[in-house]
Amino acid sequence: MELTFERDTIVCYETAVEVTLCQEETLESIVPDACPDILRIVDVCGQAVLGGGQAREGMAAVSGTVQAGILYQPEGAAGLRRMEVELPFSCQAEAPGLTEEGKVLACPRLRSAEARALNPRKVLLRVDLAVDITACQPVERAVCRGVQGEEDQGLCQKQWDGEDWLLTAVEKRPFPFSETIRLQTGQGEVPRVLALRAEPSCGESKLIGNRLICKGAVEIHMLLQEPGGGMNAARESLPFSQVLEVPAAGENGDCQVEVAVTALNWDVNPGDDGELEVELVLEAQAMVRAPRPVTLLQDLYSTAWEVETEREKQVFCRLEEQSIRPQAAREMVETGEMVRGVVDARLALGQVTRAREGGQAVLTAEGWITVLYLDENGTVQCARRTVPVTCRLDCPEGSRCECRCRSAGEIFAAPMAGGVEVRFTLEFHCRTTSRQTVPAVRGARLTEPRGGETGPRPSIVLRRAGPGEEAWDIAKAYGTTVERILKANALEEETLPEGQILLIPGVRT
Q1: Per DSSP, which regions of 226-338 are E strands?
Q2: Whole-number mean pLDDT of the chain?
């Protein structure tokens, strides 16, 4: 006889892949006719722009463009010139279980860019990219809560009550963003913008009903050239706010919001050369996690019938710890010559690697540093260095540590003997989770009366409790109930005293 069960459906997302892909791209480009010949290339400033992310069968695909500005010293002229080059890129990550119904979130970063003059009218551009990719697949998982109804079959049920830490919502939304920046002038003369890059970030997020409100800022970094030839760096912070619809998220969820640049354009206002018009399209990418209560039928038997059960194992996630861990770094970028002054310093982040040492997780982030400086002759030069920054946190065996890394505040650079000293701070946003496997009943049926072949059952049995044995195990083995065993032995806990002789009363049928 088949039993009818009360079932619950857990609706969520599962992460098919979470990875940082690093790759190089190269492109040969001709100097436009309007630009003078190249004498010496100084630096390449650029912006990685997301084109889109697409979910395919077992694969997450991402595409985009690097908008690069090659800064060079022209032949027979003072100051620096800018040559603009666009370089497309694409990458793929294997994502087992992903289908076209999945969602792909991606944030590309330009770690470094270099150019080499093949001749005065031709350059070879090389860029080094890091692309954070997260692909999520919507899933529905059925769990059995217990037998439905009050059927008089002598049924005994063992239930597990717990929580599952779930990824409940994955949403992304593009939005336009524009602002006018007033360029700082000295003696009434307006500097020329040689390079500009945008770094958006979300600083605050809050769930209200089915809406996610996120607030942040776009840091605009500019490299300026004064009319007299001098160079300096400028920075503007432009605030933004957005609202995303996140159905079924719940107000007790934990929000993770990243913001990617999908378009960037800038130009001087034709009516006022002291104003810079900046236009962006940003994409807010949100992942919401929340605890969900779960009741699960772990075991089942009948005091009157033999029961044939179908079993499975259910896996549940538990949040152990969330933390933000700032790590300060102080490094020397060697130049091999005297540095008269620092023009600009920028920091890009590479991938975060994970290792384990005992009960600790060791997280290491790559900091890619580029410094523009003036040598002893007042000529602009460029130096680069990659710096590892390490963070340690407790992470017991069997636990999993997820980490996002971002720079906090400005990067400080100052001339030192033999190079430039650079100081910066990275924030490691860490989440530690663990997995719990719970045995469960998927289905069951009653087959025949209990003890039919062995004859009448004794009304009482004497039995010694084994190590770690619970009243449920003994009750199931002898076809009685937990309540009768506890009452007969004046016990209150289902975990029995080891070695104690128990009275096991039978059940009258």
Answers
A1: 231-245, 254-269, 272-302, 305-334
A2: 91
